[in-house]
Amino acid sequence: MMMMKRKLNFNRRRREGVVETTTSCSSAKDDDDVEWEMRPGGMLVQMRSQNSSGVIVNLPDLRVRVEYGVVRYQISASSLSTFGELKKLLTAETGLQPGEQRLIFRGKERENGEYLDTCGVKDRSKVVLIEDPESKERRMIEMRRNAKIQAVHQLIDDVAMEVDKLAEQTIYPGSVSEINSDIPELKGDNYKVWRERVLLQLGWMDIDYAIRKDEPSSITEADSHENVTKNPIFVESF
Asked: 3-state class of 169 per DSSP?
């Protein structure tokens, strides 16, 4: 009886050894059959599978969920794409250039050369997009500068319209009295008020035209034609 039990145990261990040897050989054979390829960054990865005709089978695209503030985007990208290529796809959606973007995945900012698959990006994975602070500051400065330029242009247009209205009523004066007779804005103190309003508008543009220094304080009925024409601005205007 004891001899028979020992024989059964021996046969069982022998079979287990054969199975283990066969499994090890199969695993080694599978490792030998795997083909590898070198990525541009120097990483050795398993080569993509090929069909019977030898054509490389492209892997399905990943649907990457991108969170940008309160806005959500879903971008389709290959798992073999880099984060730099993902930024180019996001440019069409967000209007941000690749250099203005920062992509955060799993709490870490990813570089342009990192691959989606090697970083663990899977289908419907979430990536956070933030705008580069320096780029945002430059954009705000540019917007303020453009707004100021537009305001200056508007002020110039307003002043030009007032001058054009006065020019339509202007007649070459034969005397000082004729200057004040046809244009209400230039009668007595009204001219000074009008001039102060124009100077205030020009002052908003941060431009010093030295008008206060060169012009007379006012033009009144008491001024003689000779005194008025001595003023250089009056001479240059005709």
From this structure: helix
For 199-202, which contacts have Cβ atoms below 8 Å and span 24 or more sequence positions? 201/155, 201/158, 201/159, 202/155, 202/159
| Phi and psi at residue 131, to the nearest 5° | -85, 140
Name residue 156's amino acid: I
Closest CA to 77 of 91, 63, 65, 67: 63
Nearest to 153 by CA among 194, 233, 207: 207
Q: pLDDT digit string (tens) for 106-134?
A: 999 999 999 998 898 998 899 999 988 88
Element at 60 (helix H, strand E): none
Q: What is the pLDDT of residues 173-231, one digit of tens each?
A: 555 444 444 555 555 556 666 666 666 666 555 544 444 444 555 544 444 445 544 44
Phi, psi of 158 (to 5 degrees): -65, -45
